[in-house]
Amino acid sequence: MRTPFVAGNWKMNMTAAEAVAFLREIRRALNQIEGIEIAFCPTAVALPAVADVLKATKIGVGAQNMHYADSGAYTGELSAAMIKPFCQYVILGHSERRAYFGETDENVNKKVKAALAHSLIPIVCVGESLAQNEAGETHAFVSGQVKAAFAGLTAAEMSQCVIAYEPIWAIGTGKSASAAQAGSIVGMTVRGAVAELFGEATAQAIRIQYGGSVKPHNIADYMRHPDIDGALVGGASLKPSFVELVQNAVV
Ligand code: PGA
After folding, report:
1. Ligand 1 atom at shortest distance from the alpha carbon of 211
2. Can 166 be counted among the known catalytic residues?
3. CATH number of the domain where residue 229 is located
């Protein structure tokens, strides 16, 4: 049985003070929801404050990125060891990082290995653009991203990882993929690629989230799909109604 997992990706939103005020408002209600794992991924500077405000809860914390090196001349970057005291997860390869900050499959693969070496759980994002979707390239492209991100891992390492399938055309657009559409890519393409690399048992063990315009009113549709194990939620994780979203995720 895979425990459902909903993570809020705050992106470049919320100062540390805003994060603390927001989480004080909703942490108790979230903490009472059974049968689901929950995490927030704030900006790096808010990680210590968020870890502190959530410390007496079962709600986890994730970073939005990290560097693959342990230390060195990488101005502006953070290593796994630097974020580790404040979080259990790290989002890697988000489409915004790939599009705006030159993140490549090769970098993502190095970061996955570094995260695992520091006992951080990577949430690796994959997903196709609208043009790729319309050209019928989704399966080949997403399958390639999965295989590149996890190349060289052992099956035991792979089973620690979480994957978020986020079609780029559905992120922040209000145009979510249908549960059937998303579920079939998650099952056949994403889980399929993991099965090809690591075998069916590992593919069945790992959790795969859907992401892209997930809201309180549509989360249950995704969660009812047997292959979708949770969601990576952007905009809707910045509002108090995120509590309702998580409640609706337990189906
Ligand atoms: P969205 O973002 O929920 O605002 O579409 C999802 C994401 O980018 O992780």
Report:
1. 6
2. yes
3. 3.20.20.70
